[in-house]
């Protein structure tokens, strides 16, 4: 762990992490063009690009009336977002902790898979009947026909 970082690093302290923790919740996203999109958050990436379903989009005017349309799915680029309205019933701290736990589990699984891939593998292929490779023959008993020249007197 690096000093000055809480838990998993700077990635835990971004709005994208908060939004990723809110996947499945209904949110309202205000855009830079003075329009608002409300819907169920389906996906968020690190650039805060968002996908919403069952969405309603509208523009707010000075008289606080809202006009808009219903859309089955919406994609919002992250750089177009002004701010996100999070529902009051959502505990943001708990959502972030849950997101951190999910990421830690995913990282542990990836490390385990990488270690399994790096494990040394045998280069010899066994015979189909399960016997030793034909190039590897081990003699367990001395052959009487073979004379060892070193042992003669």
From TrEMBL:
SMART domains noted in UniProt: Sm
Superkingdom: Eukaryota
Gene3D superfamilies: 2.30.30.100
Molecular-function annotations in GO: histone pre-mRNA DCP binding; U7 snRNA binding
Keyword hit for Cell division: no
Residue ranges constituting the Sm domain according to the UniProt record: 14-90
PANTHER family named among the record's database cross-references: U7 SNRNA-ASSOCIATED SM-LIKE PROTEIN LSM10
Protein name in UniProt: Sm domain-containing protein
Organism: Plasmodiophora brassicae
């Amino acid at each position: 762990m690096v000093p000055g970082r809480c838990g998993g690093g700077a990635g835990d302290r971004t709005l994208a992490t908060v939004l990723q923790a809110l996947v499945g919740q209904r949110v309202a996203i205000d855009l830079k063009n003075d329009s608002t999109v409300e819907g169920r958050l389906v996906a968020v990436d690190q650039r805060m690009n968002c996908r919403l379903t069952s969405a309603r989009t509208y523009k707010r005017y000075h008289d606080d009336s809202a006009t808009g349309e219903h859309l089955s799915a919406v994609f919002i680029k992250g750089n177009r977002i002004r701010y996100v309205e999070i529902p009051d019933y959502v505990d943001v701290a708990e959502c972030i902790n849950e997101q951190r736990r999910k990421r830690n589990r995913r990282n542990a699984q990836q490390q385990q898979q990488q270690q399994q891939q790096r494990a040394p593998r045998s280069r010899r292929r066994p015979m189909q009947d399960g016997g030793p490779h034909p190039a590897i023959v081990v003699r367990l008993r001395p052959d009487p026909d073979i004379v060892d020249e070193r042992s003669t007197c």
